[in-house]
Specification:
Length: 185
């Protein structure tokens, strides 16, 4: 990881004042092409995204550098995890997206490593985090592996990506509450 950013990365709840920063990464098709939400096209959409999708949920947080939002980390469906949304006791889904200018700098890995222990503390009933990532998104595979997630296999299923229903092949990664977070190099 670039030492330039390491000590300046934080996770925090979103606020309405993040709207301009959210527009930077939320309106970028390179960032949103693999997300379950539509690319943001206006400041009003960004504000609605913050107020309706992020703020009401304690584990939809902003990845920040120097307290400026450069991305999004989310934990969803505690106890109702998986591609089908069926009851899956003790499991939650985790995901992330960051501004393209910060790709390849270790920031997503650091944010994930910061989040993991906090998530297990916040949701003591959760014993497993799982992440679904497009099979072809090799950079995201590396992020998960560097954060200690273990590849479990792949699944073909229908999902909504950027507002469109499509069939995708996702790699499935998991991290157990008993796993150790690997040290940073």
């Amino acid at each position: 990881m670039s030492m330039e950013y390491s000590s300046r990365i934080s996770l925090r709840p979103f606020s309405a004042t993040d709207v301009d920063d959210v527009m930077i990464w939320g309106s970028d098709d390179r960032v949103t092409r693999t997300t379950r939400w539509k690319t943001l096209t206006s400041k009003e959409e960004a504000l609605s995204f913050i107020k309706e999708v992020c703020i009401p949920y304690p584990w939809r947080v902003s990845i920040c550098i120097d307290d400026r939002s450069i991305g999004f980390l989310w934990v969803i469906n505690p106890g109702r995890s998986g591609v089908d949304g069926n009851k899956n006791e003790g499991v939650a889904d985790i995901g992330y997206a960051i501004a393209a200018e910060y790709w390849g700098k270790g920031i997503a890995t650091k944010a994930l490593k910061m989040a993991i222990p906090q998530v297990f503390n916040h949701f003591p009933e959760i014993v497993k985090l799982q992440a679904f990532v497009l099979l072809e998104n090799k950079a995201s595979h590396r992020v998960l592996e560097k954060a200690g997630f273990v590849y479990q296999g792949s699944i073909t299923h229908q999902v909504q990506i950027n507002g469109n229903e499509i069939v995708v092949v996702d790699a499935v990664y998991t991290f157990l509450s008993t796993d150790n977070i690997p040290p940073s190099p």
